[in-house]
Amino acid sequence: MVTIKQIAQESGFSPATVSRLLNDDPTLSVTPATRNKILTVAQHLGYGKRHNKLLLDHKIALLLSFTAEEELQDIYFNTLKETLLSLGEDANFELTCFEQLDELITQGKKFEGFIGIGAQPLPADKLQQLAKVLPLGVFLDIDPAPKLFDSVQPDLSQTILDALERLIVAKKQKIGFIGGEGFIMGTQQYPQDPRAFAFENWAKRLGVFSEKFYFVKGPFTTANGYELGKEILKTLKGELPEAFIVAADPLAIGVLQAFNAAGIMVPKDIALISINNIEISKYVSPPLTTYNIDQTQLCQTAINLLVDALERPTRAKIHAFIDTELVKRKSF
């Protein structure tokens, strides 16, 4: 049987402090770091088997850095948010949402860690400030500060390569790309979306890149996809590639609308492969062939990384990539 004295010796705190914390003394005031250290040691020694709820109760911040421009655009990040809230509840995380980085920095000391989701660029100096008050965090879908925080992302580079290889196997050599504006985040922010960067890199290496079939502009919305579709038809004047890889389903849905209006038949005249597998992608005409991003796995991995960081706060930062899976429908 694990004793209070054993937990106190292992954690480095007095038996009195350990006893009051494990017995949920409401008059005890300790920092989140102290609380987490004691509970982590207690759980490691087996005390948690009898006090599971207490040991898994962590105060965690959820940073939301995305805007509500259009419903289809936000489906991906809103789904990540709802999935995190659900899985966090299962893990007994007490989650508090923040939409402003400055606000989280101000209140950071109240929390043991954070999970950040969204694609909005975050200033490097602000992230440095955040790390000082809340050093344990995981970014989901982006990696804006690899030296400061963990990250979990879908493996978009491998996804683009897989799409290119499938199209080449299908005897398609004229392959284009349709995407939106974004950033590759890290120590330096590079003004190109990771999917566009991966396509340009892999298509050139595979000998199928053509500048005239490369269209990247605007947000990842259906409205912008429609405008890009019209621009493609006007620019290429009937000399379409054999296939387009589209960076996200909302864009692909807009492109489909533009092509359908112009009498371009997909996949007879041109094939489309997209990314995200949002719910509506199977109801458009034709249903989209698209790569599914397992959002539950992304969120669960983020939670697991944060729990691990709470248990081992001095370990090296971890950056995980989650594979995607092609859902075959009618557009390719």
Automatic annotation (TrEMBL):
Keyword Transcription (UniProt): yes
Annotated SMART domains: HTH_LACI
Pfam family, one: LacI
Keyword Transcription regulation among record annotations: yes
SUPFAM superfamilies: lambda repressor-like DNA-binding domains, Periplasmic binding protein-like I
Matches recorded under InterPro entries: HTH_LacI, LacI/GalR-like_sensor, Lambda_DNA-bd_dom_sf, Peripla_BP_I
HTH lacI-type domain boundaries: 2-47
UniProt keyword terms in alphabetical order: DNA-binding, Transcription, Transcription regulation
GO MF annotation terms: DNA-binding transcription factor activity; transcription cis-regulatory region binding
Name under which the protein is recorded: LacI-type transcriptional regulator
Provenance organism: Ligilactobacillus apodemi DSM 16634 = JCM 16172
